Amino acid sequence: MIRKADLPVLPAHLVAEAVSAAFKEDLGRAGDITSLATIPENANAKAVIAVRKPGTLAGLPLAACAFAEIGPGIKFTALKRDGDRLKPGDTVARVEGPARAILAGERVALNFLCHLSGIATETAKLVGLVAHTQARICCTRKTTPGLRALEKYAVRCGGGSNHRFGLDDAILIKDNHIAVAGGVAKAIERARAFAGHLVKVEVEVDDLDQLREALGAAPDAILLDNMKPAMLRKAVGLVAGRAATEASGGITPDSVAAIAETGVDYISSGWITHSAPALDLGLDIVIGKAKPQAAKKSK
Hints:
There is one protein chain. By secondary structure, this protein is α/β, with parallel strands linked by helices. It folds into 2 domains: 4-123 and 280-286, Aldehyde Oxidoreductase, domain 3; 130-274, Aldolase class I (TIM Barrel), CATH 3.20.20. The chain has 11 helices and 12 strands. It has helices spanning 12-27, 33-38, 60-70, 99-129, 148-157, 175-181, 184-194, 208-216, 229-239, 256-260, 271-274; strands at residues 44-51, 55-56, 75-78, 85-86, 91-98, 136-138, 171-173, 201-205, 221-225, 244-248, 266-268, 281-286. The strands form 3 sheets. The chain has a 6-stranded parallel β-sheet. The chain has a 4-stranded antiparallel β-sheet with strand order 3-5-1-12, covered by helices on one side. Helix 10 links the parallel strand 10 (244-248) and strand 11 (266-268). Helix 1 (12-27) packs across helix 4. The longest helix is centred in the middle third of the chain and has 31 residues, at 99-129. The protein is elongated and about 75 Å long. Residues 289-296 have low confidence and may be disordered.
């Protein structure tokens, strides 16, 4: 679990924009015609958001916003916090109010919760596997279009760190830049001349010769791309603290510990955002004093 002081923050305007776009997509022109047709207008309901599989929670602000925006009278009570570890049977939140509104908001709330919790869960797995080292797990720009800020928030909920958010907040010189610029050192020198004093410059290298050339131009960080642990260890030794080191390429739960043990500062992974499976959470209606009824997954 993330300590209270370390809880990540998701700006409210990003939450509102994402939820609004999701409702425009889901409610269409006529709203939830299934609930309008089958549920009496004055019917109220109580429900819980239940955990089916173990994982790490992310996305509560979006779920809360979804139920707040779908209609007046819904009470959303969070019982967990983003960053909490979850086990099957846990209750994430309680929802009470007009039944039609609860059911209309269900899928939007769960889509955000399941997707972002999946990212947080996979991130937390990698973070746990490298906890005995100095390495920090970070994400990349390989995100779902339109959801980058949310997915990077989920990475932080899982204990990871964020790489750059876009092309405009840091300079990362990759192999194609080097090819066009005419060499590693030349690309770094041009970047230094262009960048403001607060903009970091990182360069990607594929082998130790490129690394030596890069070190001569003094970048802030060096991305060691697709190197095996033995070469990574040599690379970290060559850098000797003169720049931050980042390992990338082929990062899996099976390989991440060996990569971290080479002494790199950061390990970046694209799959924690673009391929993490959704965490299985569901909204169950509570009938009377009985246990929540496990509803079929809403399609």
